[in-house]
Amino acid sequence: MMAAERALPASPNWYCSRCSDTSEDGHLFGFAARHNICLLEVRPAAPAFHGELVGHTERVSGFSFCHYPGQNNYCASSSDDGAVKIWDSQRRAVVTEHTLHQNTISALHWSPKVKDLVVTGDEKGIVICYWHNRNDSQQFFPEPRTIFCLTCSLHHENLVAIGYKDGIVVIIDISRKGEVIHRLRGHDDEIHSLAWCPVLGEESICSRQEELQEDTTTRGVTDEADLMKGYCLASGSKDQTIRVWSCARNRVLFTLKLPFLKRRGGGVEPAVKERLWLAVHWPQSHPTQILSSSFGGELLQWDLTQSGKRKWELLGASSEGQNHSRIVFNLCSLRAESRELLFSISMDRDVKCWDLASLNCCWTMPSLGGFVYSLAFSPVDTGCLAVGVGDSMLRVWNTLSINSHYDVKTFWQGIKSKITALSWHPTKEGCLSFGTDDGKVGIYDTHSSKPPQISSTYHKKTVYTLAWGPPVPPLSFGADGDRPSVTLYSCAGEGVVFQHNPWKLNGEAHDINKLIRETNSIKYKLPAHTEISWKPDGSILAIGNEDGSIEIFQAPDLKLLCTIQQHHKLINAIRWHHDHGTQPELSYLIASGSNNAVIYVHSIKSVIENSPEKPVTITEPFRTLVGHTAKITGLSWSPHHDGRLASVCYDGTAQVWDVLKEEPLHNYRGHRGRLLCVQWSPVDENCIYTGADDFGVHKWVATKQEHSRPPQGKKSIELDKKRSSQLKPKAKKKKKPSGKWSSSPDVNGSLNGGESVRESFLEENGISDQEGEKEQQESEPAEMVSMEGHKNPSLSLPVVCVPDTAKPPMMLKTPLVRKDQMKPGSESSVKRKKPRSILPLSTSMDHRAKEELHQDCLRLAKYLHSKDLQEDVTSHSVDHVNLGLFTDRPALYKMMDTEGKSHLENGHPELFQQLMVWKGDLKGALQSAAERGELTDQLVAISPMAGYQTWAWTVEAFAKQLCFQEQYVKAASHLLSLHKVYEAVELLKSHSFFREATVIAKARLRPEDPVLKDLYTSWAAVLEKDGHYSMAAKCYLGADSPYDAAKVLAKKGDTTSLKGAAELALIAGEKDLSMTFSFRCAQELLSSKNWVGAQAVLQQQESLLGHRLVFCLHELLHKCLNESNPVDSRSPSTPCYHSWVVKQDCSFIEMVSSVWQSMFGVSTAEQLQNIYEQLRTIEYPPSTSNTHPRQLLFHISHDLTLALLSYQSASWEEAVKALLGAVTRSCDAGDLTLMQEICNHFLPKGCDDLRGKLDNTNLQCMAAYRSLEAFVAYGQLYDTWWNLREDSRVLEQLEPASEAWCHEQSTLEQSSTARVSSPKEIVMEAEDMNEEPFFKGHNNGISLETDSVAGSGLLAGRRGKLRGCSVLLSEDHAAVQSTQKDISRVQQTLKEMICQHQKNNLQQSITNRQDSEADLEKLLAPASQIKEQKNEPVSLPDLMKQLTEANQKLAEFPDSIKAFPFPDVLECCLVVLHMGNLVPELQEKSLHLLRKYRGSSIHKEVCRKYFHESPAS
Fold first, then answer.
1. Are 1291 and 1351 in contact (CB under 8 A)?
2. How would you list the strands of the sheet with 179-184, edge to edge?
3. Could you tell me whether strands 559-564 and 616-618 are parallel, antiparallel, or unpaired per DSSP bridges?
4. What is the rounded (10 degree) CA torsion for 1403, 1409, 1414, 1416?
5. What is the pLDDT of residues 1066-1100, one digit of tens each?
6. CA separation (Å) from 1044 to 209, 401, 775, 783?
């Protein structure tokens, strides 16, 4: 697979102790990015993208090259998927792997002393040593702590240093079963990195021995201290210190405290300290220096020999902007071209290369932290590519910068969300508009540091597309100076297109749907818009819709010109062809891609030029590009070619097409994900930029790709499998969310920041995946939901509509009690539960001891009979509240209050409410229940006792409570009791209970109430989105929108749906729409060879009588062709023909005419003329060699129908033109057999009979006739040539008259040589092209011609046919074709010259700014080489002179010759010469024509075409 020329890769992973490394030979630098490893070729000026190591399914946590001599190509990686893989970086393939770890791997290193040893550690403290050559492993558990980093010794093969999360550093000996030989204590926080000193001995790093610090903090095992003599280790910790340890002395040699740099202020903010990562690196060539990271992305070089406190020096201090802007995670170095280079990766997503000699940054390579949603080249700043990424940052890449291949500016202010759409201002330099996934639209000035301007009008959903175009009303009103020349249009997921005023973004944006409705008097519902594209000249606007239609509007009033009904799914991309090509008619081409895998290209030239009064519907594409296997996400026309298109797709590939030939040219497969956007380079005609969901932008060369077409399903299947494998582990960790995705900061941060692993799904994709999601969902129909709601609203509704959130406790009480009571076999179902007492306190007091009961009696007697001592017996003690039952009312109230408080404390509010009702305080009971959310049906039922106002208030409170409990249907019923019909309908509608809401609205509201129509429309939109098209159509019918009903019914696109939609539209009076659907349905039936069904559908439309005749002729022609030469033998469908009675001996024309007359009643001249006028307005695109045979035959049938109608009405001129159209269409498709069959059926006696009926004075008519005659002869010529071998076999059986033939042949050769030398010259020129000569003495291997008596019959017939082909050798047409080819050649040379001139000027200006002569010579070398290769005049005046002369020469020819196509004359000359000396005069004329036009180099092209395409070559 061809790698990308350049690439912006995915960002390096964050918070990993070692996820980047360099190869020992200094050739490669690799870093972990998401679940892959990115490899860069190290170059001093700029890196080159080498490729990716792909195989892990989760985040890569560690990466290391093998530094053992001779093993440079091997490397190892670890991942959160539990695998450790050994790679061959040259082949980019896995050598071996193991999955021995049971926990998340946190550290990895390849031993520099053992060529096959890879050491890894995990979060539980397990260390595994793996020898991959012998597939052996050992497992150690030195400490029960979390491992943060580890590193193998540079000097001893058995020593491994390990850093832990709690600040401990240990050194183990793996030869002694992982025994800890040193435990180094001193750090009090996470150990982020470890680095061994590259040389032995402490003296090399210490200037004076007295600088050695006292050993007060280290303890360890020192039994083999002599083994560790002179070994030093550096450690970096989150405690902001770097410590250099002496392993021989078990002590700290140096403690280096990170400085607080002035540019960050006097101190470090707590947040900055919290995300500190201290990476250390000990370079091989500088043993007295240590490199480290710092607080804010600065890199420091520490000099251990320097005295004093300041031992550090800042890298990149010579100029601003060299350092990282955020913390650095990894450092590694290598030696390349006698320079020591340091590589750093940071949270700012930059990969930097530093020169350790000068401490300056050599180059910076940016990386991306999200999906690449959008690419856009500036039309003003040539080469500036804007990149919209899902990490909330906008990049502008100067792809032509001579300073750096990766000159990228990053913008982040004012964005704060994924950038999903970009568009440059067409004339204003540096003005870039952007759209985000949260609906924001803004404009950035990329040449300024100011924050962007943000539009005050937000979209409700993701912005899909942005486009600059001319203003339309109301912004188009006013003088030129009072309004902007161009305005910004945005299209988003809610289906709305806004027009923003760039001068007043804080003003309100305008929805263009209002203008579309007013201009076109549209009453039906407009489809949801998903894509917009302005024609480059600003005259036409194309809008793609969610239903797959594309509408073409004319500016400035947006008059609807036509609707393209080709796609049947959501439109993702629309692109207009550029208007600076050599063929002006190509500027009317519009390419479109949808959620289907087919790309359609339409030409709307006739629609724009004719400007019809009524909008027309286009159902036939100009070209169809088939090859992708998934949804199309982006398109881009080449600005350097005519009809060259690039497309990107979910199948993981990008494809370059030759649109005019419908041929796939080049296929790029370098991405590792689904492609989302594409842009063709405005400078290099072969370079294309693509972005994908693999977080990368690739620049690739089309002509260097080894594949020419997309993979047939295999690639997309592999992508799906890969994504499913990534999805599974994440699904286990997360619960199904109710709203946004939730993820921990640690997960976000570890995976190169910004966006978490959820970006591997496209639920967050700004580019709409609605259609794809629809097909994959298995949602229940809305009808089922409503039916369940009817059965039991109180139980079913919470189950159906409840989101995945916690329920209030009160909602669970009733169902749980009911379920427990009805559980079969339970104790509660056998023994009935005793009801709870409503007065438990007083009841319990009446069951106390006898003495206490006696005392109660005495107290009560005293109260009742001692009038002088009457007092409240319950006032002194709560123990006597029970006596209130026998005394006065106040005492009773106190008893009831006490009982109520007890009920509330014990969790029985219903008993408290019941007591309040008994007490007579009904209103208080209701208020208390409402405040607690404990209203019940019983309370509501008795609430009228407290008055109407109280009842109404109670019902409203109960309805709110029911809504909180998600019992919406019951709540709506209570609202209806208050006559709040609109509130009830809105409540049900807002919670998707459309069926219930409709019932209420229909029953309680007036039929003309707009609420009912809005309800139907909202329900239909939801049903349509869920794929319930039939139900949606019913809703539109209920809303009195039959137009929308028919459209949604036809959305599925099958024959049943289309037929039903056509009938519905016909009933509703929408005849044009009905006719469109009927014709589409008939075409679908025709594709399955069901002519009977197609005619039955068309029969319902009186206006489609002409199409019925076309289908009839198509059926009869298909039947005749199938009988003579079976076609479509591989098709599984069986043809379904009509059983029309026709005469057996009649001609094809008579047979078709009789069927037309008998079955369709077409006989009068007026009918024929009307049908002809109807059909002649339909134009089908010209055919190519890639046109599908089924489509080709249908288009030919249309032309033949026009010809036959003209036959019957005696319009012979029109008949000739129509018949010529059918013949040339089959010839352009390369189907000469079909062309001959057409001629045999329509011209069984040749063209002579037709000529006698033509007006000889009509030059146009006669020119068309000569063209038709030539094509008939063209077919006979090839038929004669192809049958030559069969005839020669017959002659071989006879004895050839060799002597006579040899004498005749030698005579002819001598005479030919005496006259001209053209045969010899042509043979030499053909041989110069490495082609087989087309004229030799032995007749190219064909049997020698003879005039023997036995073969005289065959020869005579053959010569007769060849003489009939003399019309092909027309010198006038040869001259016209030669002139036309000369013009085309000069135009192509001019185009190449202009492109090269632009490149040279651009390169010259860049070089002048840099004042570099060497670069200038290098840049101008290709231009000089081109001039040397072409021995032609390269000056512009010479070319213009040639073009003018050729155009003048072409203008001198009569228009009648140029008006109609004619077979290639020189090609016919070659065929005549190749067949030998059958007709000498034809051979002489062929040689004469080839000799005459050889100077124009045309015959070389013809020879090349002839020998490549001819079957006899």
1. yes
2. 147-152, 159-164, 169-173, 179-184
3. parallel
4. 20
5. 998 888 889 989 998 999 998 888 999 999 999 98
6. 91, 53, 22, 21
Specify the amino acid at residue 820. Answer: D
* Residue 1197 identity (one-letter amino acid): S
Of 1488, 1258, 1217, nearest to 1375 by C-alpha is 1488
Which pLDDT tens digit goes with each residue over 700-710?
A: 999 999 999 99
Give the pair of three-digit tokens for residue 1059.
Answer: 């037929």
Tokens of 1493: 């036009």
The region of weakest confidence among 48-52, 347-351, 758-762, 1441-1445 is 758-762
**Residue 1182: Cβ-neighbour burial (10 angstroms; 0-12, 13-18, 19+):** middle
Distance, in Å, from the CA atom of 284 to the CA atom of 334, rounded to the nearest integer, reads: 9
Tens digits of residue pLDDT in 286-310: 888 999 999 888 999 999 888 877 8
The label of the residue with tokens 């004359």 reads 1465
Tokens linked to 1231: 């189907």
In the predicted structure, residue 874 carries a pLDDT above the cut 60: no
The backbone torsions φ and ψ at residue 5, rounded to the nearest 5 degrees and listed phi first, read -65, -45
According to the per-residue pLDDT averaged within each range, which of 574-578, 1117-1121, 1350-1354 is highest?
574-578
CA 297: distance to chain centroid? 35
Backbone angles phi, psi at 783, to 5 degrees: -65, -40
Q: How much of the chain exceeds pLDDT 70, in percent?
A: 78
Residue closest to 458 by CA, chosen among 439, 436, 435: 439
Task: Let me know: does 426 contact 466? Beta carbons within 8 Å.
Answer: no
Closest to 390 in 3D by CA, of 356, 345, 435: 435
Mean pLDDT across the stretch 132-156?
93
* Distance separating alpha carbons of residues 1068 and 1045, to the nearest angstrom: 10
Closest C-alpha among 732, 746, 723 to residue 58: 723
Listed in sequence order, the DSSP H helices in 1181-1297 are 1189-1208, 1212-1228, 1232-1242, 1248-1251, 1259-1282, 1284-1292
CA dihedral 603, 607, 609, 611 (to 10 degrees): -160
Q: Which of 410, 454, 457, 412 is nearest to 433 (CA)?
A: 454
The residue among 1181, 1051, 926, 1186 whose CA lies nearest residue 528 is 1051
Residues 532 and 465 sit within 8 Å (Cβ to Cβ):
yes
Residue 910 has pLDDT above 90, yes or no: no
The one-letter amino acid at 368:
L
Least confident of 390-399, 923-932, 1174-1183: 923-932
Residue 1362 has pLDDT above 80, yes or no: no
In terms of pTM, does the model score above 0.85? no
Give the model's pLDDT for residue 1020. 92
Amino acid at 1015: L
Whole-number Å distance between alpha carbons of 756 and 741: 10
Residue type, 832: R
- Tell me the average pLDDT of the chain: 79
Bond prior to 474 in cis (omega within 30° of 0): yes
Contacts of 914 (CB under 8 A, 6+ apart): 838
- Largest Cα–Cα distance in the chain? 167
Element (H, E) at 1109: helix 1105-1124
C-alpha–C-alpha distance, residues 1026 and 1028, integer Å: 6
Q: Which single residue is written with the structure tokens 């010809």?
A: 1203
Is the predicted pLDDT of residue 444 greater than 50, yes or no? yes
By CB atoms closer than 10 A (0-12, 13-18, 19+), residue 214 is exposed
Alpha helices in 1316-1370 (DSSP H): 1318-1328, 1352-1364
**Neighbour count for residue 949 (Cβ, 10 Å):** 9
* Contact indicator for 1201, 1219 with CB cutoff of 8 Å: no
Of 1081, 1073, 1117, 1115, the residue nearest 1099 (C-alpha): 1081
Q: What is the DSSP letter of 18?
A: B
